[in-house]
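Lab meeting minutes (informal)
Scribe: AK
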Amino acid sequence: MSEGKKTKYINAGRDKKWTNGVVNPPVQRASTVVFKTVAEKHHATVNRANKTLFYGRRGTTTHFAFQDAMTEIEGGAGCALYPCGTAAISNTILSFVETGDHILMVDTCYEPTRDFCDKIMKKMGVETTYYDPMIGEGIRELIQPNTKVLFLESPGSITMEVQDVPTLSSIAHEHDIIVMLDNTWSAGVHFSPFEHGVDISIQAATKYIVGHSDVMLGTAVASEKYWDQLREQSYLMGQCVSPDDAYLGLRGIRTLDVRLRQHAENSLKVAEWLQNRPEVDHVRHPALDTCPGHEFFKRDFTGGNGLFSFVLKTSYPRATTALLDGMEHFSMGYSWGGYESLILANEPKSFNSLRTVANPNFEGTLVRIHIGLEDVDDLIADLEAGFARYNALILEKEATI
């Protein structure tokens, strides 16, 4: 019997062999697994890569349940676990490249991903070419004979460009290139990676999977073609996570759908309100046509979340500081995906060190916000008060000109 998505999130990873008669899979902590007979040890050794208790780094029943759940949600053949999203990205790439290889990396990638390519991959003799997220068919011109990986992130970090994943994936596969996607924004819920040509879907489960801003966790779900290599290479690099963290990721999945729907509803209300503010040049919310790649969002995604950006008409750091300081419900923090609302500002010049081919074509300050689960009216009132502080500084500046 097929299950609806909401039912899947409730049942994923709850096989009886993991739950042992209770609702939630228990937290099983272990390093050493002991065997009473040579036959038992032999069985565990032979099946160590197939969710069999062998040694703590291979996982316990808690890890196996979480891996099952993520595989069921995103599709694919298996899920590797990592201590954070950055580890998931770097170790997934490391699992498939070697000296002399070439990577195509989206220019709007998460900043630590860029640092990994520029500082670690470069040192290992792996070349990275950054490409515009909206390149589409033009990606053909950047493919080299030694291109091994095409890395996508959609929507992009900070500036929120939505990529044409099916087109990019199809072209990559013509050249036997592995397609990797940072799928954190959709949480694997609103974008089905393997239905759109992705080979490995990576998430910072720190964000929406856990959902409560209290765990560092990463996942990578791979297709059957690449699962064995991802699993074994990650194991050899020592990647493992605490069973307690795996449990919290598993627990977060139970409310994932309802949380995302509320985040999306709240964020769209705030985004539409921001569109009418005189201080705002445009809003970069994938569900709005002012966001680059909005047409791909409508075609490929089934919903949104709480994260988006808006661009102010001017760049005046003192006024931006006044906007951010004094917020009651928005806090400043380098993450998102929790139940709380967050806000960060990026001046246009800051992108010069982060982008090489996709520098944004606006002059005003970009403000990225994560809309949490608070009352929307409270969040709007908070932003309105922030704009009042912002405008006071703008008027003060104009008066001195």
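Next up, CB showed the second protein from the same session:
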Amino acid sequence: MSTLTVPHSVPSVGEDVEQLRTAFSGWGTNEKLIVSILAHRNADQRKAIREHYASTYGEDLLKELDRELSNDFERLVLLWTLDPAERDALLANEATKRWTSSNQVLMEVACTRTSNQLLAAKQAYHARYKKSLEEDVGYHTTGDFRKLLLPLVSVYRYDGDEVNMTLAKSESKILHEKIKDKHYSDEEVIRILSTRSKAQILATLNHYKDDFGNDIEKDLEADDKDEYLSLLRGTINCLTYPERYFAEVLRQAIIGQGTDEHALTRVVATRAEVDMKVIKEEYYRRNSVPLDKAIVKDTTGDYEDMLLALIGHEEA
């Protein structure tokens, strides 16, 4: 489901490092050379490049990239070059500092990673910021948002496929009763969404639709402008069908006046090695426009080239 394209014959890490050093030399930066290397190496290969660069030149590759690049292209390259756990830690820390869509980003990290990936992100957060992710989420969020987000980032879910159908039926009834009464932040709603495995939640929501006639998201559409309800719907989508959720985030980032480059960058950088192929299919199904064409229409230059390379555009 990844769209990352890695050459059949990958140059040695030493060759990649030498080429990157060459890209930084001279009168200007060779951005195309940087894209040709970093956009076509997997996470382990990028980590090896960073380590070899540091041991060879005594400098941090990320700092070099930061000095040499700028704007949206710089952010995309830096996010992509980071180890996935480090990247999640950085995104989460930015979110706790009230960057755009802060609650949404925290929810994404909590709900679309495996339990081990979330644990690794929290460990990276602890190492980098000398405090816990839970500590910052608890401090920087309030009210219903804190009630939902804190348990979401704290959980270590069962990741297997085993499901208790009796439990699914009983908890679908609990969810229906709470939502019918508009108790959207009730502790039982949050308990179910923040502790059950993704397979168990999916079974519960299937029972919800079968027994009560509607998808749960439809029953949560009482107020499109309610930010908490929007976050709750996003939580459910991320836990059950993240590809559909990310396709919608991309649509919102691209349509209308101006492009939300932060959202576009975040989704491409975090999902290219995971499920971007399915996200692209979902994007086309919902918008009748290929994602690469939408990106070409809304972006330019090296930023566009890097985006296209990461989503597997053949001519990138």
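CB comment: The CA atoms of residues 65 and 78 lie 7 Å apart.
No objections, moving on.
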